[in-house]
Amino acid sequence: MSASRRSGATDELGPDGPEPEPERDAPEDSGGSDLLAALLDGMDAALCAFDADGSVTHWNREAERILGWTAAEAVGRHGFAGWAVREADAEEIEGRLMAAMHASGRQVHEFALLTKNGGRVLVRTQSAAVRGPDGKPAGVYCAFSEVHAQIDLERSIALSEALFEDAAWGVVLVDADLRPAVVNAHAARALGIGRTSALGRPLGELLAVGVEDLEGALTHVLAEGAPPAPAEMWVSVRTAEGEQRRCWRSGFVRLASPLAEEPVPLGVGWLFQDVTEAKQGEQEAAVLRFRVNQLHRAARAAAECEDPAEAATVHLDFALAGFADHAVIDRVVGGSRGDGDVGPVRLVRIAATPAGAPGPSLLTGAAGLPVRYEEGHPALQCVERSGSVRADAGSVPPDRARAWALDRQWPGDAVHAMCAVLRSRGRTFGVVTFLRGAGRSRFERVDATYAEDVAVRIATALDLTGLLREH
Fold it and tell me: What is the pTM of this model?
């Protein structure tokens, strides 16, 4: 038997014949046979081949692993009968395999083969004709694998296809250079870009905010592996309407090549789901719980104050926590103002938070001098409308923002304002103004509701102050 036969491969299909006489190019032929044997033995799929008469001519190591028969035991046998298949099944199986010699394309079949120790293995085969130099069928090759392994492969492929086509969450494969290599339809919509447009681009071109956190997570996964739990990341996505802030619950898996002896990172699989609405709902609920608790604590503390004016400042101090940086209380000159009263509105500042270091609000206005508010000031509008008024410095340089605040008799670092009217017993007693610096967001509608709740309590305290003075 030739070297190629011993290794499970021959130079051409057909039974053993007389050994050829050595020729000058024998070393090259031997090298070709060794290369063919190495290629066949290195295949992941089991492979055998038959000549035109049905004799086994090739048998690689994967076929030996699955069935237990060595190449020396398999090559040269006629068909599978009596050793690789049961006698009762041999005719049908061999007929189906050899039929591929005269058919076009590959033929796929499933049947049971026998192992050397007598067990049975269900395999899926792909067989096709082998053509000779004249183009006529010279035999059949048959690649086969265990059905469960094939099914696992097909499931993996089907899963990949489903993830990149029909998944209800974003899936992005990021290469080792942290650039998207594959993007599914959901992820493309979340990023506001086409699936092909995102490929190969730096993440900084896809996200306006949050790129550093995302790249840090991807780098960690490449080096250390997948984190034990999903991570929630806030990012800003560029859209036609401007930047949109989103929260993505993200999971990461490291991708390694199954063909390498040692794991070689191919990149990271990034799966994410938009949970912005849920997170915003959680945050709003947490803020609401905190504010209700603050109102409760303020009411209990104010109940212990003998002076109602002091109780007003207690409500103000409790309201500031987590809500604003500064606050002032302005009272209407004369004590209160009815809905039918006419004439200009004049306000006296009776309490304010310290402009420098933090501390409790201070009672002021003993002299009763009106605050120099210009016409159209938000506090004056608040009294005239008997409703809340919001004001902002806008997107201006810091020096202009400071001038905006000082012109309105507010601390210089204020850029956002919320004025809430102080009403009690159908009369207006003044205005409470909450102020935020540049490090905070502008006041929203939900903030106005909270400011109005605080204003009701302050107004009640100021009303009680006037009643006590009358008596």
Answer: 0.60
